[in-house]
Amino acid sequence: MPDDPKVTAARGRDKKAAAGPDVDLKQYSRQGGDWAYDEQYQGFDAAERSHLLKAGIELTDEEHAATFFQADRAVMHCKVSQPGLEVLPIKEALERYEWVKDYYWRLVSPDSDKYTAQTALDLDNGYFIRALPGAKIVHPVETCLYIRTEGLAQHVHNIVIAEPGSELNVITGCTTHPGVKAGLHLGISEFYVKAGARLNFTMVHNWGTDIHVRPRSAILVEEKGTFISNYILLKPVKSVQMDPLVRLTGSGAVTTLQSIVVAHPDTELDLGGRVYLEAPQTRAEVIARSVTTGGKSISRGHLVGKVPNVKAHLECQGLILSETGIIHAIPELTGEVAGVEMSHEAAVGKIAQEEIEYLMARGLDEDEAASTIVRGFLSIKIEGLPMALEEEIERTIREARKGL
Amino acid sequence: MLQIEDLWVTIEDKEVLKGINLEIQAGETHTLFGKNGSGKSTLLMTLMGFARYKVVQGQILFKGTDITQMPTHERARLGLGLAFQRPPTIRGVKTRDLLQVCSGKGRQAAEALAFDYDFEGFLEREINYGFSGGEIKKSELLQLLAQDPALVLLDEPESGVDLENLQMVGEIIRRLLQKERRRVDRDKSGLIITHTGFILNYLNADKGHVMCDGQIACHGIPREILEHIKEQGYEECVRCLTTPK
């Protein structure tokens, strides 16, 4: 880390982001939100619990390798239940280990835009997760970033490290209190997947209708490492703009980025996924599925083949379920050398009549047929996920889909 | 069971069926022959009530009920079942779920059927995604078995099926049409489009019809019609039919 991040950040504090509607940071409060630590999750009523569940957060330490819960600016819960794993609030990790700062702001630059700058200058907290070399962490680590106070801006920085040969599954639920309408979430995430390690990262967003969300993520995957990301956003939100960058720097590194999103009326989504294939035998797959019921969804994807002998595929599919919604698919491929094998497919449209009629011929009425097709469209299937994780993702999608 | 009276159908304003009359009694199996484009598939799609196929004249009675304007799903619930020739792929929806919809009896019924015909491996797969021609046919027929329709509509059930699987396809169709029972004890009926007639090696059909330019031009014993077509081709068949005797 050459410079003090705060010094670098100062240069970017007025820099607008390259994409997404511009958010006035002054509109959001930085007061309050200092919740006390809650060992037994006693401070949550039934309404709050059921709302959290829709983002996949169960508020239990059972069947979780670790749990981390940050409400507004405060870490309310952080517990590790399995050996081979470290989970700490990022501020504590930076204090405890000198070397953590080598991972801090290494993949994302503090002066990228005003959101990264603001987070660097005025950090609340965030999680630090590290699977030790060779550790197989079967149960998921469950983390939650929660906005519990109306009008608040939350500034988070996360670091996840899968040391060589380790296996780690992280589920992050980002959500708001059922009573919170407006707010801002800024989240920096830096992921390090080392040689032969495997990291599954599933993120569920379930925000309030007036929340702006600006995640800034970057991922480094070393030799024969695997990074799998699932992103699920099915409920109304004001705007989400993100364009995570995965760099496959070691030979044989693999990544799959999948997203299923719904743009409701008044929602503006600008979601991307970039993969740089920088070493031979690397592979990447980006699958983006978006549905609009009246909102705008921009679906970007960019694959860059920098060396020969790499293979990558990009798929953007959009389903338009209303007269007013917009889906804008922008798939991009860049081959910088010969010997790259990259492809993409994009399709945007309404539900095919023949699919509806096919199901109707089996006895479903038109509405049932259409919702069956939409549910299928919004399902995620990844080979090789641990059973427990797969079940949890499916359950989360089922919960989040309710009332769609 | 089924009564079609003077049925005229257009697709995108083009007349495709031009006055079809056809009656199928309970327990009877009929076959439809005809050149490509003669209107055979259109007839089946119209019976199922798909939106592209507009009935401009005539009516369809099924089990005594006028279904001419009935939505597709109600026809299905009333007992009409169609095996598609080229069904769509539906991503993200498991074949198991579709079989369950068909049977309305839950998971076990679907699984038992799949087990009977060595199809368990497909239950978790997305509907028709990456299926071979033969697998599609098998999937369609198993859906019908689960649906248990009173009138089975089959659109070229043997096309794309290799010889090894042809026998199984034949067996499933026999089961659908209760061919193991005595003729008088059957109550399921069938209307089968066949190009090659292969399917007649596995089951007897009671009546055959030849379609030509949107009309049923000839009725007869299915095997005789087939032999005639094989020997002389459809052209001769049509000439014979259109020449006044």
Provide structural commentary.
The complex is a heterodimer of chains A (404) and B (245). Chain A has 404 residues and is α/β, with parallel strands linked by helices. Helices cover 16% and strands 42% of the residues of chain A. Chain A contains seven helices and 21 strands. In chain A, the strands form two sheets. Chain A has a ten-stranded mixed β-sheet with strand order 2-1-5-7-9-11-14-17-19-21, with helices on one face. In chain A, strands 10-12-15-18-16-13 form a six-stranded parallel barrel. In chain A, strand 1 (66-71) and strand 2 (74-80) form a beta hairpin. The longest helix of chain A is centred in the C-terminal third of the chain and has 15 residues, at 387-401. Chain A is globular and about 60 Å long. Chain B has 245 residues and is α/β, with parallel strands linked by helices. Chain B contains seven helices and twelve strands. In chain B, the strands form three sheets. Chain B has a six-stranded mixed β-sheet, with helices on both faces. A four-stranded antiparallel β-sheet of chain B has the order 2-1-4-5. A two-stranded antiparallel ribbon of chain B has the order 7-8. The longest helix of chain B is centred in the last third of the chain and has 21 residues, at 222-242. Chain B is globular. The A-B interface holds A 352-355, 357-366, 369, 372-373, 375-379, 381 and B 48, 50-52, 71-73, 76-77, 81-82, 84, 87-88, 90-93, 97-98, 101-102, 104, 126, 143, 147.
